[in-house]
## 1
Amino acid sequence: MYEPENNKFDHHQRGFDEIFGHGFVTKLSSAGLVYKHFGREIVANTLGLSSSDPIVEKIYLKVYKSFVEGVDGIDNGVDMYDTDAPAKYSENTNLSARVGKLNPPWDELSRVLQTLRESGAAAYLVVPEWPSQPWWPDLLELTTDSFLVAPARDNFLPGHLGSVEAMGSPFWYTRVCKIG
């Protein structure tokens, strides 16, 4: 769910096409959304300057171009080059690749749920409480019992970006679902 007024920066929803602007056309990832809304303030505070200072704007745009746009592109599957030729090598040691390896393949969950539906097999699934995902209705339909696991309050980063109060604790819940 993308609701900047509520500090919700999820870009995984149908029809989402938010871009950074300023001449950039790469669709934003969650990192890009956070940077778009808070990057100027972060740069200004780091430099001890006003957010309206031209130097802040220049650095804000340079950091997006040289770092954040790459994260956005990789996270959204945007090819780095305009060509149909296969890549001559694989580059998977960048920040986005490293973070991506930590994330479960949520896009596979629809397939897993379909297999469980067709086979009638029983399973336990541990998933994020994420109602905006396309697999959520199927999960609820197949679930015979479930419970929520709440995060420990001290697992959140200090400040407004990671606080329970800003993000809303349901966003951080994990649901354990019994299927079948």
Note: Confidence is low (pLDDT under 50) at residues 155-171.
## 2
Amino acid sequence: MIKTHASADPETRPRTSTLDRPTLMRLAATEYDRLGAVLAGLDAQDWTRPTECAGWDVRAMAGHVLGMADMAASIREGRRQQKAAIQRGGVFIDALTALQVEQRAELTPQQVTERFQVTGPRAARARRRTPALIRRRKMPMQQSVGGQLETWTLGYLIDTILTRDPWMHRIDISRATGRPLTLTGDHDGALVGDVVTEWAARHQAPCRLDLTGTAGGSWTFGDGGPSIELDAIGILPHRIPARTRYRAACYRSAVLMDTRIDEIADHIYRLSTLVPDVAPGGFTFNQFLIDADEPLLFHTGPRAMFPLVSAAVATVLPVESLRWITFGHVEADECGSMNLWLAAAPHATVAHGVMGNMVSLNDLADRPPRDLLDGELIDLGSKRLKHLDTPHVPHGWEARVLFEETTGTLLCGDLFSQIGDGPAATDNDLVAPSLQAEIMFGYTASPARLAATARTLADLAPQTLACMHGSSFTGDGAQALRDLAAAYDEQFPVPDPAA
């Protein structure tokens, strides 16, 4: 399947379903049947297996999908669940899904299966009978998608979202149990295509998207842009909290997000994607693109973000012109899409320290990486980067930073991580928000080693600190690094072994 679309205009109308209603209702009925068959095929051990939704095993996930089907099948039950979730307080979808699991916890796996096989078809019928007058109404609360508020119609929720949820959880259960996953083009391919169309309308960037597998297809949006090839089901998000996971089931991970571009130093661009719900106010994942004679990317982002980030890069320079792929250490958010970048940029080379290449990248990278010695320079033509080993700072044996000498920009990875969605660059203090993130996540392997390394990096006298998570810093970077070191010394004192 190959489809060509012009880039959509920014959407101001309420969100509605993009497929025709007979197709949507066919997809709903089929998905309930397929999920019921999956539940019926599980054995006793399968029900206790953990899923990629944090805190949910297969049994809890089945309780949730049964609860959603119960809600869709009966107006009275739907109102009861909504009232109970509101009374519980907090974020509504958190409260709702938790209640669905708790209130069905006493059912045996057989009872859950039998009830779902009865309730699923009832839910499909009830959704099909929802009058057009109701479906055209706007939902009372706006929905946050990638940090932007959208207005949805009830029809979009009833016709589209309530099918994506069991579909996503059917895939979850297959992954958790190792059971075969039934995929067909007319069903799963239609669901994937619907999500792709929404995704393209939201991110507003030209690209060609090739999704492989039975549920895949090919789409072209606008003129130009990168060519992206991914597995249609494999790019679905992994190992994220239940509420975020639920929303991802509704919109897919890439649809949730948008990547913003800002030039934080001369020809150095920050590509920032806010991921909601990782932390209060969200959590940004930032890549840095250096536009030079030999363009360089620092951080690749995870696989699921590749379509967004590559589309952002393409607004600055052709993706295929990238010469260097770099990152601070080996971790999904830093290098998860490394091989996708190597495929998109045929002349690009991964460059990392000797330790990182030896223990990981010689095996993980699709092309041999280049070894960099501590202090070695990469000459990009108009820019020069110095590789500096920082083992275990903030974490990872192979950790390092890069220092761009002509602009005084320190690509400092996870140092100075901050939660929330701040400006692209700031001259405000980053030490306090960085300590807040440290206390929340505990991401530093050795606070004492971090303090010593920060003082060493201060000797570079950076003018810009390019941070992986949160705002970049412009100003006296040396003082900021010394202040960070002092704060870690105070917050995490090293015990006196003689005491």
Note: The chain has two domains: 7-189, 257-491.
## 3
Amino acid sequence: MDASRVRELIYGLQADHERGDSPGSRLCRACVDLIAISGAGIMLMDDHGNGSSLGLSDRVIGTVEDLQFTLGEGPGIDAHALGRPVLGPQLDHPVETRWPAFAPAAVKAGVCAAFGFPLRVGAIRLGALSARSVSGRSTSTGIGQGRSVGCRWKTRSRCRAS
């Protein structure tokens, strides 16, 4: 993200604050642009698994978040619990059966790939950033999580059109 886009994001976040609006949706749309994914959502969670969405980039990621909260499984839930990125690059052809309820429901909603990144401040676990891809084409994306993860993740995802 270049300096002018960062300034635009900061000014937008300040304007949201002044209006009393939540910054969540703006942050999620910035993640979509930065990571080059189809959608992003921020889920806040406590140590007991109770949670709420802070922001969503679009309605499809809203469905993904609802599925995770309702079913109690998915990449965001796992990223929060495990404290590390969780990648599901091929939900329609999973290598392992990690999310037996979430994966088929997400595919039915049009989501081909889903990812979760933990959100932390030091040792305090806040929740997760959930990301999704609905593209039926092959994508190769470097997903950087910055200082909270401390490394770059690369994934190659393919999703067959159903």
Note: Strands lie at 39-45, 51-56, 86-88, 113-121, 124-133, 139-144, 152-157.
## 4
Amino acid sequence: MIHSVQVPREDLGKIRFSHFSPQVESRFPVGRAHLMVIPKITTADLRKCKRHPHQTLLKTMLQLGKEQLAERYNVKSKFLAGFSYPSEYNQLCLHVVAPPITNFLLFRKATWYPYKQAQADLFQYGYVQKKEGIQATDIDPGVVALDKKVRELRAKEKEQCEEWEAKHGVNPGGIAVPEKPKIVVSMAG
């Protein structure tokens, strides 16, 4: 059974529908790119998912998120995919985020379920396990590590670009810098 999904009016221009689910740019992005993949079927949240009906659903959601991240932002690796619990809109939603991260609150260990962990739980237990005994303010260390790695790579790429620009006489705006005319002063005497 397929149901419609309520999308805020300001997001209607940013939505792309497939036969499966819409992929929406988040209203409150937490990274360089932040997509939300929402299935058309009604599933209140991740903890309601069961092995057989939902494993394929989650795989398809991830595939759609990866495709859109590559198409819209040219990001093919080094991204995060996961679910928050409880769901923001009382509807299952996969977050696909490309670092650098601007706000880590989504990734609190108590409420963030990485995609791989959710799939592993579904396979092993038939449902996604509830997290117990986790400090509510702790941030997922895997998210922090990936963010750090991406920031370091971007800084290195920026440094390499600046070196190339300096070597080839191009300023950061991409405009060739003309050589200064040499002025020779001679004293006649």
Note: Residues 1-15 have pLDDT under 50 and may be disordered.
